[in-house]
Amino acid sequence: MKEVVIISGKGGTGKTSLTASFAALADNAVVADCDVDAADLHLVLNPQLSEGSEFRSGFAAQIREHACIACGMCASLCRFDAVLENGRATVLGRYRIDTDICEGCGVCAHFCPESAIDLHERICGEWWQAETEYGPLVHARLGVGAENSGKLVSLVRLEARRIAEERNRSLILVDGPPGIGCPVIASVTGASLVVIVTEPTLAGEHDLERILALAEHFSIPAVVCVNKWDINPEITERIEKRTLAVGARPIGRIPYDRIVTEAQVNGQPVVTYSSGPVAERIEGIWLEVLTSI
Amino acid sequence: MKIALASGKGGTGKTTMAVALARAARSPVRLLDCDVEGPNCHLFIKPVLERSEIVTVSVPVVDKNLCKPCGKCAEICRFNAIASIKLAPLFFPELCHACGGCIQVCPENAIGEIQRDVGLLECGSSDGLEFIQGRLMIGEAMATPVIKAVKRYQSDELLTLIDCPPGTACPFAAAVRGCDYVLLVTEPTPFGLHDLKLAVATLRRMGIAAGVIVNRCVDRDNMIAAYCREENIPLHLQVPEQRRIAEASSRGRMLLEVAPEFGSKLREVLQMVTERISGGQR
Amino acid sequence: MKIAITTTGDSLQAPLDMRFGRAVGFLIYDLDKGTAEFVSNSQNLNAAQGAGIQAAQTLVATGAEGLITGHCGPKAFQVLEAAGVAVFNTRAANVDEALTLYKKGDLTAVASADVEGHWT
Known about the structure:
heterotrimer; A: 9-stranded mixed beta sheet; elongated; B: about 280 residues; alpha/beta; Rossmann fold; Alpha-Beta Plaits; 9-stranded mixed beta sheet
């Protein structure tokens, strides 16, 4: 089984639009939306028959107010400044935990002399297994401001893999998150190939350098395509040269075209919405991806 | 005054707006680039970097001579970063959250801490603009410590503008926490709208006031404008889709260099935001 | 000597669980006595991170000197290696088949993890 991850470093370069088109072009794939912070793939793949599950991860501490003797032990031990003082020193129960900041390490609960602190499991989001016109889709939504997106990403990938095994599907397409941190690392570890979508801007070029280094760091083969290449042909050339220089492979250019937004507004992948130059280029890039795995 | 530039969706023009606001403002500005996974402000403002420091996190080390393998350190660690197996404990620093539990719990005081490098902090200036940026090292997972290090430079005395990471997860929360106002930069597409809604929900929960800037709009009466009306969120500015802006931006030129007419509009945005903050309209 | 096999059930006929860190449990087989005991790993199925490390500790505590599993990640391997537990990878269908292969000497101890970490 092969797993192809579409990432970009810089956000907003067209990962999701490209993944949606790949999903439409692929014969036998399972699609996983691992941009769990801002999952958008379902807006163009129109999932049906979704089955949702809670995503639980980690803990948050809570002080039982009536049991607190306001000794301040928790506040002095907390490394994350998550223990708040309510201000009035003589009132019992003047400590409170900001659950948004709490990392759930449980140190306060362990050392509280009155055992007045409980740890509650956190519900950090939701994930769905769904069917689309183009095959099964696993997608998720991380809870508001929640942490541990890396684990949710791993869960989405694992579920996609399970479905692929169950239904004999030979390919997993992963829409990855932007950046180079925790969720990106969770998206790419062990993948067969990363497809990097970038744009010919100084910012795109700068972030490409970092994402290529990341792929190299985890020893995953990388191919690069430049979206909106005609915005700046000069930087496009530079990007492709640089790609070759670091041992990755440029696999195509996509022109700037309003049709991409139009397809999105109409809730469809570009390749099914139109047959113009953008769709043609994406089809060419898809063939390159297939030969790369 | 601390104003953050954020967006649920990436690539909507946060950095463009942060840099443009910094340049348009009449008062002294400090610009913090908290998008530590892909810091890009420097490409536009081209600062002279005057100094840098390494950002580190603490990780535990055990003194094997003092350790009498009791397993208490592994037991208290909720991140499974410590394994205890009859011998001295094994530490897995990349899983460690530096909570200090193992150090506190060790009856032999055998556990201490060393610093592990996770990022770089750089300070400089450009034409009177104070500039600080963070950079996460490649292969490192946790952006939050680097963001926190950059945010130590935020100030109430002068206008602090903070360029945030995309998304709505912990790096975003760390960047906007403690800000007086968040300007959400988005684009009038289904993805832009969907991610804007997520960002708004996060900020409401955190109790931080927010307004919207629409970038690349074709039509002023777009889906974002409609959403802002419905939700009673201030819509501060709409920047039209123009190929010349996109092309200039690709070369690292700032919005105000190609479209100077936005200078006064951005100053109006700052004025509106200032009034909202001082009016306590949360 | 005791040897552990990752499994989803509690008998010799139970299927092999290819996972280690998030395996349902371990069947601990005593080669000298021919007896088997099931040790649950379920507290670990939902670990936020470091499931392999935790599972390795659970396994070491059983006194097993060998582990037969589908795949073992780098952190778990490091713990097992430090504790002197030999790791054998197999694709055997069930516990019994895995044990037979082991007894015949068809399994060789691996020198390193065979899969990359899952990050979390």
